[in-house]
Amino acid sequence: MTLLKSSQQIGERIKERRRELGITQEKLAEKLDVSYQQVQRYEKGSNALNTEKLQIMASCLNVPIGFFFEGNITDAREESIPYLPDEEGQALSLFRRINEEDRKTVLQVMKIAVRKNR
Fold first, then answer.
1. C-alpha span between 96 and 64 (Å, rounded)
2. In whole angstroms, what is the distance from residue 13 CA to residue 108 CA?
3. Residue 40's CB: how many other CB atoms inside 10 A?
4. Among residues 56, 55, 48, which one has the least CA distance to residue 6?
């Protein structure tokens, strides 16, 4: 049986997941295209999220949308992908699409760049 959660319960889950990922309210607000004060209101449950914002929120927090409505938090965390900043996520996505030999070359270039920036 699915239990519909109140705005306050959904807000608590948002806040807990955001903190777990180390995302500030400001960064989450930027991704949602709202003010950080609006994120505060979502987390307190004083403002409900519409369907579109809830989908974007789930994506930003790397959880399935059902995370906000049912099951326990541990289950949702196990299904989720760790948060990566946009640039890192793009790099990982591209890296996964190249062949093994080229991956080794990319890793060598990255190691050189790290040494150079120390």
1. 22
2. 40
3. 15
4. 48
Between 25-32 and 51-60, two packed helices, what is the crossing angle to 10 degrees? 130
pTM over 0.70: no
DSSP 42-90: HHHTSSPPPHHHHHHHHHHTT--GGGGTSS-HHHHHHHSPPP--HHHHH
| DSSP-assigned letter for residue 117 | T
**What residues have CB less than 8 Å from 12, skipping those under 6 apart?**
43, 45
pLDDT over 70 (residue 78): no
Domains along the sequence of the chain with CATH: 7-79 (1.10.260.40), 86-116 (no CATH)
Condensed to tens digits (0 to 9), the pLDDT of residues 16-67 reads 999 998 999 999 998 888 999 999 999 999 998 888 888 889 888 988 888 8
Which two structure tokens, joined as six digits, stand for 54? Answer: 């809830």
Closest CA to 49 of 2, 86, 90, 6: 6
